[in-house]
């Protein structure tokens, strides 16, 4: 019911305009989204780096409906990677991208998204950083994994996200693990009504732990993308159990979420990478964050009241 409400809200143009028009609501949005443009996001990234955190930047650009728009997204990423190099951030800041923004959902989309992602991966390597692929709804999972496998022939460092709420993911973790692999595992933000997914939170949590165990016992770099204190503790225990040092895995969290915990983990010596979304098309991302967690809605309204 809560999710259905937000799904409707994510399509509500009036609410979007209201958020845009009101300076107070823009301030609350900025807690979760670093800005409309690279220039606005720059300060947010710099302050994370000052705190000893790392970042992965994700551009929330216009929807991709044509191959030309997909090419424009590639050009935008090439520009951000130049900025990352010019700032001297290549050791600490990488990029994340959705395959739909690179054309995956268009005609011959798999081929198009593969060559577009390869162009970004090549530029990331030239600059001295990496690319990680986001994962979208279940209809795209098999295609995304095929694309990762193709890209890895030339760019084994390309990372990808796997969603623990899919029953297939534990096997995918095992299949994709390799010496240079970078697998980001999260619980999954999409909830399709399909047999292929776990719906119960406890089952998703158990799957998450199994995926973590597989990755920690594997050869690649596990990227533990969660804010869940229980999962964080289990990841630390599994790492100790598998003789992984502090730098042999990463914790990853979203911009503006559990910021005290982000710094606490970094102070313990862990690598903590923050997913920094920015761009003019921030609205669906922002609504997803509200939908994910009732407490975020409380934060939203508290922000409104305290700014009066
Ligand atoms: P979950 O929502 O299960 O909450 C468990 C506990 O964590 C809570 O009880 C609370 O203690 C704590 N917690 C969670 N959110 C909190 C908050 N806002 N404030 C305080 N405490 C909080 N998804 C996807 O489908 N495709 C993708 O490509 C990505 N990419 C991605 C990258 C990165 C770096 C991250 C961190 C996440 C994603 N996600 C994603 C989103 C992910 O799948 C998931 O929806 C969210 O991270 C929420 O799940 P959690 O594991 O954080 O906790």
What can you tell me about this protein's structure?
There is one protein chain. The two termini are 30 Å apart. This protein is of the alpha/beta class. Strands 1-2-3-4-5-6-7-8 form an 8-stranded parallel barrel, surrounded by 7 helices. Helix 5 runs parallel beside helix 6 and helix 6 crosses helix 7. 54% of the residues lie in helices and 14% in strands. It is built from 13 helices and 8 strands. Strand 4, helix 8 and strand 5 form a beta-alpha-beta unit. The mean pLDDT is 92. It has 2 domains: 60 residues, no CATH class; 242 residues, TIM Barrel, CATH 3.20.20. Bound molecules: dihydroflavine-adenine dinucleotide. Dihydroflavine-adenine dinucleotide binds next to strand 4 and strand 7. The site of dihydroflavine-adenine dinucleotide has 23 residues, from strand 4 and strand 7.
Largest β sheet strand count, sense and barrel closure: 8 strands, parallel, barrel
User: Which architecture of the largest domain does the CATH hierarchy give at level 2?
Assistant: Alpha-Beta Barrel
Radius of gyration: 19 Å
Coarse structural class = alpha/beta
